[in-house]
Hints:
Oligomer: single chain
Largest sheet: 6 strands, mixed
Helix content: 40-55%
Number of strands: 10
Order of helices and strands: EEEHEEEEHEHHHHHHHHHEEH
CATH class of the domain at 5-149: Alpha Beta
Amino acid sequence: MKPNRVLGKGLSALIPAADATAGGRLGDREARMLALAEIGLNPHQPRKSFDINNLEELASSLTQVGVLQPVLVRRLRSGENALPLPGDALAAGAMPSDSGPSYCVVAGERRVRAARLAGLREVPAILCSYEDTEALRVALLENIQREDLNPMDEAGAYRDLLAAYGATQEELSGMLGKNRSSVANVLRLLALEPDIQAWLRDGTISRGHAKALLSVPEGPQRLRLARLCRSRGLSVRECERRAQALSTRSVGAGRRRRRGSPGDETPEVRALRERAEQRLGAPVALSRDARTGHGTVTVRFFSDDDLVRVLDAMGVDTNLG
């Protein structure tokens, strides 16, 4: 698969400067004013929560100067669903395109939501022809560039892109203009306990805390340390220090319990593990007894669809029909 390298160049490469208020075409795209009633929200939007105070501040600005940057939208296909704007009559769920909006937001959902709060009737928009997976990729890029995307929302979007494209982590990193290790570290957040993931979402612990917590073996010790970070406001450095101490004790205890336990990962084993992760597009753990050579290979998946994708990458026939 050939990743679209334009995404690494930023949204300026996706949304060229244009006067959408005047209408007209931008290559294969069309600039126009769209009524908010015609626009629905992307059900696959990476960002799951929006700060109401920030939206109200943006709405106040829009009331005074209007929407200066066009939003990016795509036309809904027949039978496709979009989510209604908050406050719409059908806001309880997705609204079919034949009874609601004709367009779905690809990038600029905050502006659309704030425009609704400001009481605006229409916004400048650029109409594109992206498919679902491409729209998800563009929406993710926009949120990443804002640098305030919730860590768990970002991890979930990475997972969805891997599943949608059947891509490897290496290919995903190329799509997003990030190095592979950064992508792998974000995906590792999905292996954290549900409580820790929830605290990451609400901001009571940070990415730095999560990175330190991942060095602690899964289980009660990791959860207790996460609770300490929340209740006592431990710094990332203090969390790292405690995590290192817990990890050291855990490794020592494991070696005492069973003779011939796997040693530290050698450069050769690390290289093989990284190659496996690139091939499968999923986190891989290799556990090997240096004395006997015996061991296990563990591959993580994050949904039923992701499991099928990983098995396909292994060459397993997943067609059970």
